[in-house]
Amino acid sequence: MPGSSSAGSTPAVAAPPAGAVPRHALRLLGAAVAVIGAGQAIQVAIVPGLIAATGIDAATLGLLVALGVLPFMVGAPLWGRLSDRFGRRPVLLAGLVGAALAHALFAGAADLLAAGRISHGTGLGVMIVSRLIFGVAGSAIYPVGQAWAVDLAGPERRLAAAGALAAGLSVGRLAGPAVALALLMVGPVAPLWGLSAIGAASAVLVVVGLGGAAAAAGRGGPAVAAGRPPRATEGMMRPFLVVGIGTFAMGMMQFVFGLHAMARLDMAAPAASQLVAIVMAAAAVVMLGVQTLVLPRLGPRPALAARVWAAGLVLLPLSIALGWWGGAWWAFVASAMLTGAGMAVVVAMLFARVTADPRLRGTRAGLLNSAQTAGYAAGSAVGGLYAVGAALPFGLALAALLAAVVAGWRLPARPV
Question: What is the DSSP-derived secondary structure letter of residue 15?
Answer without folding.
Answer: P
